[in-house]
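User: Can you predict the 3D structure of DNA-binding LacI/PurR family transcriptional regulator? Sequence below.
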Amino acid sequence: MPRSTSSSSAKGGPVTLAMVAARAGVSPQTVSNAINSPDMLRPETLERVRRTIDEMGYRPSRAAQTLRTGSSKLIGYGVRPAPPGSTAPVLDRFLHALTETTDEAGYRILLFASPAGGASVQGYEELLDQHDIDGFVLSDTDERGDPRQAWLAKRGVPFVGFGRMWSKRQIGDWVDVDGAHGTDAAVEHLITLGHSKIAFLGWPRGSGVGDDRAEGWQRAMRRHDLPTRGRRAQSTDDVDAARIAVKPLLDAGATAVVAASDTLALGCYYALRERGATPGRDVAVTGFDDSPIAASLSPGLTTLAQPLEAVGRECVRLLLARMSNPDAPPERILLEPSLVARDSAPAPDA
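Assistant: Sure. Here are the predicted structure tokens for DNA-binding LacI/PurR family transcriptional regulator:
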């Protein structure tokens, strides 16, 4: 019976393909086929080689794979710092989901620093000069004047966006979360609780994501013939700024506030407590993103959960499809968030 070893040979060196072939009693080409073209082998041979690979801890050389297939198996992702005052690390959670899915597909994520502020091709050009990158995943694609999609498309570099481009000219494949559907669902939920004076606290106009979430609130309010005039305020995605911005809505008698993010919702919590009021009991509050802080707040924050695992899977699927067929028509996918009811706007039977 073969003796199990680590990824190093008994002499201390790395386990090689030839060593695996010798242990399994097959040719080196058969081992290579088991890794790269398993359909070429008989099932019993494939099982024997794979078992030997696992027992010996053999790992194929990435450099050799790149030379053979022309693929580096590397996908680039630019990481930007979270803005000050933000409590919802959505992109951190997305990156975790993306990394898991990429790994399952046999690829690796290569992270690089992307500068704070507006979107830029800085970093992308440097990475392409220094490494063989198969493609890129982009986030923060809603910024106006984002040059990355056109720059990558011009150079024939595959990419997929987490998020829509909100300009009239759409470029490339993307996966996004339907923010309007989410805030519409939040309004419907509040109406089932008996609310009619439902306000919206969003981001400044001109943000594609923010305007989309505002549209869902407006759509649901119009559907129920509820007034929206004087029931909308805006704030940067900062807790203290939101605390100040929501005060006129509370002064006007809002009994519920739909916030465009969990960060803004937390600002509502602080504003209510300054008045001696309790979120959920005196004024209902909903957020968006289901960030880690949402469940830990007291009372727990009702919010919209983004399907980040599904977003990660779809991003990888679209990118791999684009790599294999660069001339295929672009594919765009819109996924729905789900309402997570907690005590700040409890379920009707709670």
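The chain has 14 helices and twelve strands. Confidence is low (pLDDT under 50) at residues 1-8.
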